[in-house]
Amino acid sequence: KNDSWPGQTYGEITWDQGLALFREQVPMGEKTFRSIRWGKHLQIWMVEGRDFRSPNDMTDGPEKTIWGAAQKKWFFDSFEQSDATFRILISPTPIVGPDRDNKNDNHANAGFTHEGDEIRSFLSRQKNAYVICGDRHWQYVSVHPETGVWEFSCGAGADQHAGGFSEDRREASHRFLRIMGGFLEVKSGVDAGRPKIVFTHRSVSGDAQHQETFYGE
């Protein structure tokens, strides 16, 4: 069920039963949020966007959340303490956007502005920090106009599933916008002694569509 939150039911299945079924069918360990270190220069964080969220129609403010207090503290603490050169937050939903005007269920929307601002402000104070968004059906690279946070959306896996946005809605925050399927390739390594990370958007056939390169500070 899309746009769901605790307390709802799905036929005869309660929210808590749904969580238990998911964890049985998709074994992920004790928690559904986790971090993986990949060598000296890269660490990624994968967050959970459903288990702890407030209702979408709740009035926005300090108590309204998608991540929940425990997950948010874990992310802020572990992200800040990491000594990896490049740190990437992989979020199911956008942190930067822009998103569609009719959506109100993620940090790029007005309904979760307070927590979104909190996360974007935190990320803006971190060196070599980036966001990858999974659940938008279009490819994009955007830079938040107030905080300078970079976000990369991998887009739909197939051309037939691309949509939900249009290129004539391109905003100043977009560095790249493409309403087609494909994937996002990320490569981290060392170039002439300097840590380097490259984000490449590709088509479904693997052809490069856009690329951004950064060197570690």
Please give a structural write-up.
The chain is α/β, with parallel strands linked by helices and 217 residues long. Helix content is 17%, strand content 30%. It has 3 helices and 12 strands, in the order ββαββαβαβββββββ. The protein has helices at 15-25, 69-81, 113-124; strands at 9-10, 13-14, 34-38, 42-46, 86-91, 129-133, 139-143, 150-153, 174-178, 183-191, 194-202, 208-215. A 7-stranded mixed sheet has the order 3-4-5-6-8-7-9, with no helix packed on it. It has a 3-stranded antiparallel sheet with strand order 10-11-12, with no helix packed on it. The mean pLDDT is 95.
Short description:
This protein has 217 residues and is of the alpha/beta class. It is 17% helix and 30% strand. The model has no long low-confidence stretch (mean pLDDT 95).
Structure characteristics:
3 helices, three-stranded antiparallel sheet, 217 residues, alpha/beta, 12 strands
Please specify the SSE layout and strand pairing.
Layout: E1 9-10, E2 13-14, H1 15-25, E3 34-38, E4 42-46, H2 69-81, E5 86-91, H3 113-124, E6 129-133, E7 139-143, E8 150-153, E9 174-178, E10 183-191, E11 194-202, E12 208-215
Parallel strand pairs: 4-5, 5-6, 6-8
Antiparallel strand pairs: 1-2, 3-4, 7-8, 7-9, 10-11, 11-12
> Got a strand count?
12
Percent range for helical residues? 10-25%
Gyration radius from CA atoms, angstroms:
18 Å
The average pLDDT value, as a whole number, equals 95
SS summary, helix count: 3
Label the structural class: alpha/beta
